[in-house]
Amino acid sequence: MTVTQTRIRNQLEHERRFLQAVSGRTCKDNGAKADFKRALSGEPEHLRKVYPFVLPYIGSTSEWEQEHIWIPVACLSVYYPQPIREAKKQKNFGYSGRGLANATSSKGVDRRFRALLDLALVDIKSPLTALVRQMRSKEVAIDYPKLLADLRQWEHPNQYVQDQWARAFWNVSVSSFDDPETFDTDTETN
């Protein structure tokens, strides 16, 4: 196993523990579930209500990352709970998007997914939430720990996460794209 693969597996472990802690705190608390659903709006007063459920478990991350990645994904995981699979079985959000596209006859999923791939992280919350709402209605599986890990790398200059998602969505082989080491991270971008 490469150093990068070990780092990613360890990172997924952190995401798994975080989501399990949030799930454990909210699974029998309907009031908390309602708070998480309202927090999907992004309104500060609703976000503050979920802080006691998420902030103790996030670890050392920036406030910006908490607001744009950790809290939104925690809210989605409470809104549409999914079993948390072991790291090596986790699939990226492109597979979930493909599952949704296969479950509907609409071309809208393709259009929404294509638009999602072009968004900056700061703009991704609302379109991602809309897709998860659709996935919930069609009972499409989502691996939230992998989603968290991917969103943490969303702004990488090589956009390898977006490439992985696109290849998974459009059924292109992803074997060489599952390892970020296949991308030259030392290359300067123009």
What does this structure look like?
The protein contains nine helices and no strands. The protein has 190 residues and is an all-alpha fold. It has a single domain, classed as CRISPR-associated protein Cse2 (Peroxidase, domain 1). Helix 5 packs parallel to helix 9. The longest helix is centred in the first third of the chain and has 24 residues. The radius of gyration is 16 Å and the shape is globular. It comes from Cyanothece sp. (strain PCC 7425 / ATCC 29141). This is CRISPR-associated protein, Cse2 family.
Write out key terms for the chains shown.
single chain, 190 residues, mainly alpha, Peroxidase, domain 1, 9 helices, 63% helix, disordered C terminus
How many domains comprise the coordinates?
1
End-to-end C-alpha gap: 32 Å
Beta-strand fraction estimate:
under 5%
Shape: globular
Number of beta-strand segments: 0
The CATH architecture is: Orthogonal Bundle
Q: Summarize the helix and strand pattern as letters.
A: HHHHHHHHH
For the CA atoms, what is the radius of gyration? Answer: 16 Å
CATH superfamily: CRISPR-associated protein Cse2
Question: Roughly how much helix do the residues carry, as a percent range?
Answer: 55-70%
Protein name: CRISPR-associated protein, Cse2 family
InterPro entries: CRISPR-assoc_prot_Cse2 (IPR013382), Cse2_sf (IPR038287)
Pfam family, one: CRISPR_Cse2
